[in-house]
Amino acid sequence: MTASKKPRKQISTKTRFEIFKRDGFVCQYCGEHPPKIILHVDHIYPVKEGGTNDADNLVTSCDVCNRGKGARLLSNGPTSLKDKAKQVAESEAQLLGYYKVMKDKNSRIDGETWQIADLYTEELSLGGIRRDYFRSIKMFVGKLGFHEVYEAMDLAITRFGTREFKVFKYFCGICWRKIERHKESIGEDS
């Protein structure tokens, strides 16, 4: 008795269309496109060799190229596929780098925001800071930088002492004026 083969999973119509869209409705082997040819979805790494229906293993192919390749593994894929693989790898590397930079920036801004919030709460002997106040400080740090915002908070505390609302209102006014002055200095409209 022979072991039964697992049935081949069909590629859905939706997946086929997504692969065609991704590849610009062009055969990735020969460059032909409809209406001159009929498009198929080909497995780069053949199912017979363990290839899957994942989008990264599928490519748009014309009928002639698909039949010509058959279930063989191409040792040298079309240059366009190699280029696409390199582009995807480079894009992923850049995206991961960007995410890391943005995460590091956000962590830095959070830390700086907490330093300013601590100055505010300690000087005014508060048990904590309101969330909306914290978000405002964070926004100002993002726009002006730590030192400008810290200086503004220190000035507001010096001017109004322990009057919580007045200190924060004055602090915000200083920061907004700094932002406006910066816009004017670079010639940006409000």
What features would you describe in this structure?
The structure is a single chain. By secondary structure, the chain is mainly alpha-helical. It has two domains: 13-72, DNA Binding (I), subunit A (Orthogonal Bundle); 91-185, no CATH class. 59% of the residues lie in helices and 5% in strands. The chain contains six helices and two strands, in the order αββααααα. Helix 3 packs parallel to helix 5 and helix 4 (131-144) crosses helix 5 (146-160). The termini are far apart. 16% of the residues are buried. The mean pLDDT is 86.
Question: What keyword list fits this structure?
Answer:
190 residues; mainly alpha; DNA Binding (I), subunit A; 2 domains; two-stranded antiparallel sheet; 6 helices
**Structural class estimated from helices and strands:** mainly alpha
**What's the pLDDT, averaged over the residues?**
86
User: What's the SSE pattern?
Assistant: HEEHHHHH
Number of distinct beta strands: 2
Estimate the helix proportion, in percent: 55-70%
The largest sheet, given as strand count, sense and whether it forms a barrel, is: 2 strands, antiparallel
Please give the count of helices. 6
Distance between termini? 81 Å
Radius of gyration: 30 Å
Tally of distinct domains? 2
| Broad shape | elongated
Sheet with the most strands: spatial strand order: 1-2
Percent of sequence in beta strands:
5-15%
Low-confidence stretches: none
